[in-house]
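Board notes (copied after class):
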Amino acid sequence: MVTLCLGYSAKKVVNLLKSVALLLLCLSQSPLQAATLLQASVDKNPVMLGEELLLQIELDEKVSGNQLDFSVLANDFNFSAPAISQSMQIINGRSSQSTRWQLSLFAKKTGTFVIPAFEIDGLRSEPITLTVVPADPNGTGSDELFIQSSLSSSELYVQQLAYYDVKIYFNGDLQRGSLSQPELPGATIEQLGKDVEGSELVNGQRYQTITRRYTLIAEKHGDFELAAPWFKGEMIDRQSSRYDYFAKTKTVSAQGQALKLSVKPIPDNFNGQWLVSELVALTEEWTPPGQELTQGEPVTRTITLTALDLSDHQLPDLNFSLPDGIKSYAEQPQSKKAERNGRLVAQKVFTSAVIATKSGELVLPAIRIPWWNSKTNELSYAELPERTLKASPNPAQPEAQAAAEPAAPMTSTTPVTAIEPVSPWHWSYSSTVLLLLWLSTLVLWLAPKFIRPLQQKSAVQAQAQNQASVLKFSSRKLKAACLANNSAEATSQLLQWAQQGIDPQIMRLSQLLTHLPDCELRREVEKLCHQPYQSNTLQWQGQALFEAFAKYKHLQQLPVTEPLKPLYPA
C-alpha cells in the first residue's frame, strides 16, 4: 500500500514537470512582439476653463517612463507630473505588455488648442483638438478641491496698490501642496502676511479653507490679465483609508480663474510726486512739548507721514524751507509698514533737532503733500499748518560773551623807586669755593631721604589733578568757549567731556575722533583738530561746533523708536 502511494506521487511530479516544459516550449515559440501602437486620449472634450482634464497615453510595450517629453504642453496648460504604470498579461500562451502615462491638465485660457502628437521609437500618436469653454460662473468645480481668486479692484491707477486673494477649498485630509506664484508683466506682486486657515459652508457642505493674500502694484497703464492660480497637492485616499491603517495618498490639483485688470495713467491735473491712496495724513510731535524755545538749546521735532494701502518705499520725502533764526539737523528718515485687518499701513518718520539761533517770534511754514484720493477720485492734500514759535534769549549768552572778552592788563600810576642792594659782608673767592663744597656734600647726603617722598607726592598730586580735571567739564564752559571762538579752551573742554563720558585714556582730539560716529560733531571736531596747522590767519568760529555738540547729546538721549503709530491719531 505504501509502495502504491509513493508511485502515485512520483507520477504527479512527472506530469507537473511535463506541463512546465510545455509552457516553456510555447513561450519560446511565441516571442514578445515589438511595440506597434502609441495611442493618446482625453476623458472629456470640450472642457470648461478651470476643470480638470485627464490625458492618457498608452504604448503596447514596456519602456522607460521618461521616454515622453510633456514640456510641449506648458504654453497652453498647467499640468502635474505624470502617473506611470506598466502591465503584462499572458492569455492562451500569448503575452502582452503595456506602458501607460496619465496626467492632469488645466487649460490656461478659453479657445481651441491642439494637444500635439507624441513619438516613441518611430511610433506617433494622433494629435487631439481640444475646445476650452468658459466656466460656469455659478459653479465651484470639484466637490473635493477647488480654488477661488479675487481682486480688491479691477480698475486701478498706475502705482496704486491692490489686494489679490487666492482661497483653496478642500474637503478631506490634505497632506501637502504647492500654490503657483501669481505673475503679471509690469507689476510687483508680494505675499502679505501668512496663510490664514478657516472653514466655510458652500452649497450646504463644509469646506476647510486656506487663504493667501498678495499686494499688487502695477507700474504701467493698460489692460492686463492675471494668470489663473494653480494648486497641486496630496490628499488621503478615502477608499484606501477604509481598509488600511496606513492609508495611501493620491495626487490632487485644481485651478482658479484668470482675472482681468485695467490700469489707468496718472491724471493730467495732478502736479507733484504721484501718490495714490484712500488716506494720507501728516502729524508732528515736539520733545519737549510746547511752542517755547530757548536760544541755542535744541528740541526734537518728529513728523510722521502715514498712508493706507501703500508700501513704505512709495512714501515721498518732505521738502520745506526754514526761516532765518532756525537751524535744523535731520536724521535719516525711518520707513516701516504693518498689516492691520488685512490692509497695509505704511509710515515714514522724519526726526530732526531744531535750534533757535536768535530770540523772538519764528514762523515755521506749512507742509503740504498732494495725493490722489482713490476713493473719491479727486486731488487731496495732507497738510501741517503754519506754526509760530517763541524763542527766548539764553541767560547764559551774555555771560559767555563776557567770558570771551580778554581781560585788560592791569596798570598802575604809582611810581616805582629802584633800591640798590647794599651788602655789609666782604667775600673772598676762597670763601665762596668752600661754601659751595660744603653745600654739595649736604645735598648728596640728604637727597635720598627727600627725593622719593617728593616723587610719590607729585604722582599723587598729578593723579588728583587728572581726576579733578575730568570732573571739571561743564557744557556751559564749552558753550562760552565756542561762542568766544576760543579754540584752546574748547579743545580742553571737549577732552574733559570725552574723558568723563567716553574713555579716560583720551588725551588728544585725534583719539576722540575714533570714538565718534559719522555725524556733524565729528566733522566739526576734525576742523578744530586741524586749526593749529592752518596757514591762514582766519579766526576759528566755534558756534557750529557747539550746535553740533548739542545735537549729538540730544540725539543720544532720544528714546528707542516706538512701534507703528495709529492710522487715525487721537
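Comment from the instructor: The radius of gyration is 46 Å. DSSP finds nine helices and 32 strands in the chain.
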